[in-house]
Amino acid sequence: MRTISFDVPEIDYLQLMEKLKGYAYPRDKVTKLLRSGELVRIRKGLYLSTTTPVPYSKEILANLIYGPSYVSLEYALQRHGLIPEAVRIITSVTTGRKKRYSTPVGIFDYVHLPERCFAPGMQYESLDRRRSYLIASPAKALFDTLFLRYPAVRSAEIESHLFENMRIDEEEFSRIDFSGIELLLEQCHRPSIRALRQLVQRRKPHG
């Protein structure tokens, strides 16, 4: 059986049908590719090619499985080196409903974030010339985590919560650039976000 080659491993249904347009029965070909392991079905309309020269990206898959979304929360905190623990579940935020997808390559969780909080602090991360994905900046990943997971944390306990409970690296925290989400910090009245804003202001270098 002739190998079907793709430029990138993450493929949607339209890309797949374009590649197979020379076949009389493209859907039968898809079945054969799935059976042989050359294709892996991630969810309806989304596949992985196992024969491409570049490895697949869980972050790209996270963006494609359910959207609009971007990688955030614990997985993004780990990617940015802010927490020491390995995070197995790929966590994202979305303006849509909360969802969980169990796939052959892992579990993808999506948590609802209000639209007004969604876009600030979201950034593109490039993998190569062809591929990039959306992920929260370090500041936004922290904002999203406090906003969604720990809304009630107060100013008096914010430092112990961040550096002891969440195990945020204090040195890495001091390097976070919060300028991209300053307006969010000012306009959000959730206790944990007010506490974060006050902490950032206290630790801002003077002079």
Describe the fold and architecture.
- This protein has 207 residues and is of the alpha+beta class.
- The chain folds into two domains: 10-49; 58-203, no CATH class.
- Helix content is 38%, strand content 20%.
- It has nine helices and nine strands.
- The chain has helices spanning 13-19, 26-36, 58-65, 73-79, 138-149, 158-165, 170-175, 182-187, 191-203, and strands at 10-12, 39-43, 46-49, 69-71, 90-94, 99-103, 106-112, 122-126, 132-136.
- It has a four-stranded mixed β-sheet with strand order 4-5-7-6.
- A hairpin with a 2-residue loop joins strand 6 (99-103) and strand 7.
- Helix 4 (73-79) runs antiparallel to helix 5 (138-149).
- It starts with 9 loop residues before the first strand and ends with a helix.
Strand order of the largest sheet: 4-5-7-6
Q: How many helical elements?
A: 9
The biggest beta sheet, please? 4 strands, mixed
Structural class designation: alpha+beta
Domain count: the total is 2
Order of helices and strands: EHHEEHEHEEEEEHHHHH
- Oligomerization state of this entry? single chain
Beta-sheet strand percentage? Answer: 15-25%
Protein name: Transcriptional regulator, AbiEi antitoxin, Type IV TA system
Organism: uncultured spirochete
